Amino acid sequence: MTHILIAEDEFDIRELLTELLESSGYHVTSAANGMEALKLHQSATFDLMILDIMMPYLDGFEVAQQVRKTSQTPIIFLTALQDEDNQVKGFDLGIDDYIAKPFSLRILLRRIEAVIRRIRTNDEEQLSFREITLFPASYNVLISGNAVILTLKEFQILHLLLENPGRVLEREQLIQQLWGFDAFGDTRFLDTHIKNLRKKINVPYIQTVKGVGYKLEATN
């Protein structure tokens, strides 16, 4: 379960955030000031920290600065300070997002989900070829850093090609591995999947070897 640390000196907001996140399936630990938050971070592992800036003992900037000396734990600032200078200061310290109060609970949840998803994608095992990056565990594909939505079979075809760069994969071999049956000469449904995959990724690396199959290879 994703473990989130909330550091907020206002009791009502701290309780609201705790209830919201726990009801959304997160495990939550809370702190009432920056010093407490830093001690908790040093004694436990968190997947995300949500920090107010204006807190007693240590403010959010000081906590983030100390955390970044030893950890890349994602940090979101949730604060009443809305000016650009404070936002820039936060991002310069290495925080991952900055949300100004008052805030929408629905948008806050989406921003939390986005940060966690981005960090986990960065940590995940990946296969790459030129502009293509594929994440087997999360079924994500990026082309030049931009997400591309593939069907399951398109994803599986690309996965096999990325595992075998430069190697020709025969049509019958692909069909047997992905569908679990022999094509008996009719491979047109595979060709349709390849056509759609090429269109979606929009990079010219899936090469046809006439009469044999396909391979992943750069043209230059």
Automatic annotation (TrEMBL):
GO BP, one annotated term: regulation of DNA-templated transcription
Chain ranges of the OmpR/PhoB-type domain: 124-218
Keyword rRNA processing: no
InterPro entries: CheY-like_superfamily, OmpR/PhoB-type_DNA-bd, Sig_transdc_resp-reg_receiver, WalR-like, WH-like_DNA-bd_sf
SMART domains (alphabetical): REC, Trans_reg_C
Protein name as catalogued: Two component transcriptional regulator, winged helix family
Signal peptide boundaries: none
Key words of the record: DNA-binding, Phosphoprotein, Transcription, Transcription regulation, Two-component regulatory system
GO cellular component terms, semicolon-separated: cytosol; protein-DNA complex
CDD domains per the UniProt record, alphabetical: REC_OmpR, trans_reg_C
Naturally occurring in which organism (per UniProt): Exiguobacterium sibiricum (strain DSM 17290 / CCUG 55495 / CIP 109462 / JCM 13490 / 255-15)
Record-linked PANTHER family: REGULATOR OF RPOS (PTHR48111), STAGE 0 SPORULATION PROTEIN A HOMOLOG (PTHR48111:SF32)
Domain Response regulatory: 3-116
